[in-house]
Amino acid sequence: MAQLGKLTRAICAGAFALIASPAFAHHPGGASNTGGAGPIVTISASTLEAGHGAVAFLYEYLSFGGLGDTDLIAAASRHSHAHSIGTIQSASASAAYGVTDDFMVSMRIPWVNRTDIREGHHEHLAGGIASNTVDYRGDARGVGDLTMLGQWRFFNNPATRTEAAFLFGVKAPTGATDRVDQLGAQFETEFQPGSGSWDALIGAAFTQRFGAWSFDTNVLGVIAGRGAQDTRLGDRFLYNAAVSYRVFGYAQPEQFGSLPASALSHGPVPHRHEQPLTKIPAPPQWTLDAVLELNGEWHDYEETAGVRDLNSGGHVLLISPGLRLARGALSGFASVGIPIVNQMNGLQSKTGYRVLTGVAYAF
Question: Which of 163, 276, 277, 283 is the most buried (most CB within 10 A)?
Answer without folding.
Answer: 163
